[in-house]
Amino acid sequence: MEITEIKIIGGVDKCGNPENVKELIVKKGEIFGVVGPTGSGKSNLISDIEQLSQGDTVSGRKIMINNEVPSSDMRRDPRKRRIAQLSQNMNFLADMTVEEFLIMHAKSRGINSEGLVDKVIELANNLTGEPIKKDYNLTILSGGQSRSLMVADVAVISDSPIVLIDEIENAGIKKHEALELLAGYGKIVMVITHDPVLALMTNRRVVMKNGAMTEIIETSDEEKEVSKRLNDLDGWMLSMREKVRHGEKLSIGDIQNTCKTC
Amino acid sequence: MKVVIVAGTPGAGKTSVMTHTIKQLQKKGKKTAVIKIDCLYTDDDVRYGKLGVPTLIGLSKDMCPDHFAIYNIEEMVEWAKEQNTDTLIIETAGLCHRCAPYTKNSLGVCVIDATSGPNTPRKVGPFLTSADVVAITKGDIISQAEREVFRERVLEMNPNCTIYDVNGLSGQGCAEIAEEITEAKDITDLENELLRHNAPLSVCTLCVGETRIAKKYHRGVLRRIDGFTKYVGE
């Protein structure tokens, strides 16, 4: 089934008052942002979508797919749910190599893993400064490596029409590239973020407060320009990080010559 | 009377999952009673008691908690009937990972912790392989990919179960388990009820208190490390 849009029908906030935003439709190809302070209910919103809630969660929200109530089959079986999620937590506990893990994951999604392992690792290595090798044990991967691997995994193995991302910013990976990779091929992407670079990369964003959707903000052209500049800054920051990581010393020249925005 | 038997690895979150599930059952107007079977100590009766449901605890002491549960099942069902309830939830500690507590007409619910790693489903016994419903907890701590791999391993061991990702803190997924319970069949003829799988083999002198370890003192069904099993005794 082709998924062309998801609709979130508003529920109630933490005190039981109706949400300000009654209805939110995100269409295929759109990158949508979710912003708001800690504890405002961002992760719950994402989790409502992940579960395809039908008024049976704390928020009382209902999720429609292509303007219809999703089948109980789709709700119950994650293989049929076709939603990829990148959560804040990305601790690997599986005692196996990157290669074994990717092969098993492909199997659990019912796809042929031939050639996939190299493809995932190559994409992942484009996003992080610390290359991953396929015979590495999963448990030794750093935060950045794990994130990159999962982003690449979502792009290739759990390739789903709906992608939910919960605070991808905390791991020192190339965010723009990561988001572009995930948003590719006309997906519906929802990003929770405190990061201005990511927030402004979206077309629209919903503001969360006290467990409820309170407002939808359209990203203006001016904000898009701000986003570009912030991204340059971010890339520069990442390059500084790489230098420090590789034992190099930084100088004032690094700031003056490298950062276009400064 | 519906009988739900809940088993799982220690610390997986059986009690947390069941408290949220009971809340959902209460919303549906069901009258639930809970019995917690443990070995030495439990204060789960306090946690269950807060829900306002009749609660009983059974301590099996030095006996296998699942064997203890099986010997006492008639009394437990009788007790639940006296409490004027329609659903009895028996949560058992089952510590050897080889336990087989479910009966044919009960709803067997296995609670297993995703952070224990994808090899765990291969290391545990009939409480996973003969369960109707498998609740996977703590999935929010790991990545979706790792959750899917864990799920695949569970299905390899028990292809017929229904799996739910459950969060013992928020109660996410417990509504579905409550739904499974309301759809489960009743146990009508307890006298002819059967276990789904035989309980683990343990008929030896150690079972009745022998502490000497030399080979010559052992009697009963003895299995050697080379795989040879024999009976020693009269």
UniProtKB/TrEMBL annotation, chain A:
Residue ranges occupied by any ABC transporter domain in the UniProt entry: 1-236
Pfam families in alphabetical order: ABC_tran
Gene3D superfamilies linked: P-loop containing nucleotide triphosphate hydrolases
Top-level taxon of the source organism: Archaea
Keywords on record: ATP-binding, Lipoprotein, Nucleotide-binding, Transport
Example of a GO MF term: ATP binding
The keyword Transport appears for this protein: yes
PANTHER family: OSMOPROTECTANT IMPORT ATP-BINDING PROTEIN OSMV (PTHR43117)
Similarity comment: Belongs to the ABC transporter superfamily.
Protein name: ABC-type lipoprotein export system ATPase subunit
Protein's organism: Methanococcus voltae
UniProtKB/TrEMBL annotation, chain B:
CobW/HypB/UreG nucleotide-binding domain span: 3-163
GO molecular function: GTPase activity; nickel cation binding; zinc ion binding
Gene Ontology biological-process entries: protein maturation
Record-linked SUPFAM superfamilies: P-loop containing nucleoside triphosphate hydrolases
InterPro entries (alphabetical): CobW/HypB/UreG_nucleotide-bd, Hyd_mat_HypB, P-loop_NTPase
Domain of life: Archaea
UniProt-listed PANTHER family: COBW_HYPB_UREG NUCLEOTIDE-BINDING DOMAIN-CONTAINING PROTEIN (PTHR30134:SF1), HYDROGENASE PROTEIN ASSEMBLY PROTEIN, NICKEL CHAPERONE (PTHR30134)
UniProt name for this protein: Ni2+-binding GTPase involved in maturation of urease and hydrogenase
Classification lineage: Archaea, Methanobacteriati, Methanobacteriota, Methanomada group, Methanococci
